[in-house]
Amino acid sequence: DAGITQSPRYKITETGRQVTLMCHQTWSHSYMFWYRQDLGHGLRLIYYSAAADITDKGEVPDGYVVSRSKTENFPLTLESATRSQTSVYFCASSAQNTGELFFGEGSRLTVL
Amino acid sequence: LAKTTQPISMDSYEGQEVNITCSHNNIATNDYITWYQQFPSQGPRFIIQGYKTKVTNEVASLFIPADRKSSTLSLPRVSLSDTAVYYCLVGRRSNDYKLSFGAGTTVTVRA
């Protein structure tokens, strides 16, 4: 089905491990985003990408790495997970010049 | 980016109209106002977007006064399923996607 999908939906890992959250969209949207959502903070932008091979930092980028070799994929990597990175992560995409973001279902990450 | 301020929470009853006002005093000329809805355990969903005056769709209406320093999302005749968090965002539609959602307004609809 068309849309935006995230995997895994749930992940438990340990401090210091590397974790990659995947995001795939089938609309060929130019823009893709990663947000994290924590209680009391709403959604905060981690990284975004305007096109393949173009990425930029958002509000809270420290501890995260992104890449975008293909338009449809935008993986988010935590190179050495910390407990403070326990959160729900949302990926989103947007066509150019619309201002409308389409979100995935989220990936709940727990770092022990 | 324009900072937005909206109430933390609102309570309502089924069948009533809910109006959520968002303040954005430093909105720029090219900024649009966009509202999203988020249910528990789901990603936010686009509701409505506007630039000035009034915009209406099948879900909601958005009222924007002439000075554009605030906007009001109106949900007509709410039902229990409208219980959600509602976010107001202000920004350009192009070239500036560093949008953070803030805490939003938690709307609770009671029977």
Report helical residue fraction of chain B: under 10%
Q: In oligomeric terms, what are we looking at? A: heterodimer
N- to C-terminal distance of chain B = 38 Å
Shape of chain A: globular
Order of helices and strands of chain A: EEEEEEEEEEE
- Counted by DSSP, the helix tally of chain B is 0
Mean pLDDT of chain B: 91
Q: How many beta strands in the DSSP annotation of chain A? A: 11
Structural class from helices and strands of chain B? mainly beta
For the termini of chain A, the CA-CA separation is 34 Å
| Major sheet of chain B | 5 strands, mixed
Number of strand segments of chain B: 9
Radius of gyration of chain B, Cα only, in angstroms? Answer: 13 Å
- What portion of the residues of chain B fall into strands of 2 or more residues? over 45%
The parts of chain B where pLDDT drops under 50 for at least 5 residues are: none
The helicity of chain A comes to under 10%
Shape of chain B: globular
Task: Count up the helices of chain A.
Answer: 0
Based on CA atoms alone, the radius of gyration of chain A comes out at: 13 Å
Summarize the helix and strand pattern of chain B as letters: EEEEEEEEE
Structural category of chain A: mainly beta
